[in-house]
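Workshop exercise sheet. Pairs work together: one partner reads the sequence aloud, the other fills in the structure field after running the prediction. Swap roles for the next sheet.
Pair: D.N. / O.F.
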Amino acid sequence: MTSRHQPYYDIVKKGNILFVEVKSLYEGDIAKQYQQDMVDLTHTMNKAPWASLVTYHGSGVFTPEAEKHIVDITKFRVKHNMVANATVFLDSKQADLQQMQLRRIYASCRLPFYVFSDTQSAENWLKDFLEKQPQVV
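Structure field:
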């Protein structure tokens, strides 16, 4: 298990799933650190199909700059065998808007994406999705 902990987010690798906890939205240097952490962890995914489960705590929408950063890092991750994303919104009054933004982001990267109301359902879906993926030899 590999992990990266920051005041704004935590990323933990468990098997072929990256679990990301976003505690509050971020920009600037924190966004750059997030991107670097994602690049570093992406390189540890051993070329097999993998996925991410992102849990957002609280409300907040992405600025255009933040949205661009997410598109860039998502394209990088897709290029390195990320095959799906599951997202959970907890305690958000703007979940509909957040979901619309993420749908736009992940659609532009051609990445399967679903939103769940709890992390266990999201994890179960990802595990099932990953089992159906062809294995890289």
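Discussion prompt: The two ends are 23 Å apart (CA to CA). What would you look at next?
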